[in-house]
Each structure stands twice: as structure tokens, then as C-alpha cells.
Amino acid sequence: MTNKTVDVDFPSRIGVWWNSEPWPIRDAQKIVQEIEALGFGSLFIPEGGGKDALVESAAFLAATDRLVVGTGIANIHFRIPTPAETGARTLAALHPGRFVLGLGVSHAPFVEEAMKGTYRKPLATMRTYLERMNSVQAEIEEGVRPARVLAALGPKMIELSGELADGAHPYLVTPEQTAATRNILGPDKWLVPEQAVAIGGDEEDQLRWAHTHVGFYVGLQNYRNSWLRQGFDESDLIPGGSDRLVRALVGMGTAERAAASITAHLDAGADHVVVQIVGDGPTTDPRSALRELATVLQL
């Protein structure tokens, strides 16, 4: 898609969001190789504090040929701006068009309790961080421009995604929110939302998996505010989330219904969508469900 400010060579418009941190890196590389072989266009990985997302990205880029690898997201509280920028430039230089640096401000409980850090105003913190990244001397990997997207939920962070980054990587949003994000970003910035799906088991299993997944985020103020903006109310923000909330955020049922929840974001203006398989826990192997989806999506 050459109309973007920075080109990313996605082999297809649908990728995968997968938490690789609990897996030994050699095993994770094998899973990522199958993700590429199935025809998915990307792998986006989180950074929860267990492993360095840029180091993991390097391992996955080296293990694949065309797959785009992105951080979804790299926590700006884990590293100062200079190595974030130079590390991204290095990966982009080694693998042109195949690396996306997703950045996020994380959440107050993680930063203050787990990291013993200070969580200040997220918008101002992110703006300062990006400005410092932009001040890194051009001679380092000269001419290389890594793609950069932000974990943007609110309108001001979305605006910043278009001003000082190359787009947005929203998480746990509806297709309607994807459309609203596109309206703010305009046509020339990348929009790569995540979509969770539950495939397999029976309806009760899928609903339980969805509640467990969404329930992890219900206590985080950034997501609560996002869902209130998306039209939900406090009755939906109960422990585990209401049935209405989880059914809106997690594609459940057959592989065909799950696929429809993914393509709805493309129809709403996303450039690329990353699908997350939810199951019994973070060590759930995503490959069986991804094989079903790849067939239905005709990847």
C-alpha cells in the first residue's frame, strides 16, 4: 500500500496477534513459521515484562521470509527513546518493509506496582517520548525509516498517532470504533486493529474464554474509558465483562463467524487486522484455530 507515509510489505491483509512470551523461543519460532506458511501477513507480539519485544521480533524476523513482525505493543516505560528508535531502525534495515514498532504507554498498575515507576499523563508522556525518538541523529542507519504505530484508544492519542507516528494499533475495539479511528487518522496512516476470536469447544466454552480474556482488562482504566466511549456503560464493566461487552469484542461461534468479525474491521477502514485466538490461557496453542481461519479466509 504505497499511499502510506511509510511502506509496510504485508503479504496479506490479515495477521496474527499472539503472546509468545510464555513459550521457549525455539518453540515460538516454529509456531511463527507455521503462521507464515498458513498465509497470514503479520505477527504482532505484546510486551508484558517477561521478554524484550524487540529481541523477540529479531528472532521471528530471522526465522521467517516475508512475514511482517510488529510489537503490539512495546512498553515505553521499559526503554528510553534512543534505543527504541535505533533498535527499530536496525530491524528495519535488516528486514526492509517487515518490521512495525508499536508503542504504548501501558497502564498505571503495571508501571507503578510491577515496575515501581511513575505513571504520568499518558498523552504528554507519549508526545515527549516520540519527540525524543525523532531527535536521534539521522546518521544511525541513515535513510531507514521504520514504521511506527501507537496503541491509541482515545481521540487525542489517535490524533498523536497521525501527527508523530505512522498510524494506530487499537486493541479490544469494535468495527465501529475502527471506523471512527479512520476518520480521525485520515487515509494516509496505517490502521491495524486487533480482533479476538474464540473457536472450538461449545458455546459455553467460548463464552467462558471470552469472559476470561476481556475480564483481564476490565480493571484497567484506559480500557474502561475506551468502552464507555464506544457506547457501553458501567453495567457492562462488571468483573469478567457483561455478555453484551464480550460478544461485541470477541468473535465467537464457527470459524466463518469468527472470520466475519475480522473482515468487519477491514470493511470499516482498517488496512490490516491482527487476529488473537483466545482459549484456556496464555499457553493455548493457537495453531489449530488459525488453520481453520486460514481456510475460511482463503489465505
From TrEMBL:
Residues 11-269 form the Luciferase-like domain. It holds the Pfam family Bac_luciferase. InterPro entries: F420-G6PD/mer, Lucif-like_OxRdatse_MSMEG_4141, Luciferase-like_dom, Luciferase-like_sf. GO terms for molecular function: oxidoreductase activity, acting on paired donors, with incorporation or reduction of molecular oxygen. Gene3D superfamilies: Luciferase-like domain. PANTHER family: CONSERVED HYPOTHETICAL ALANINE AND PROLINE-RICH PROTEIN, PTHR43244. NCBIfam families: F420_MSMEG_4141 (TIGR03620). This is F420-dependent oxidoreductase. It comes from Actinoalloteichus hymeniacidonis.
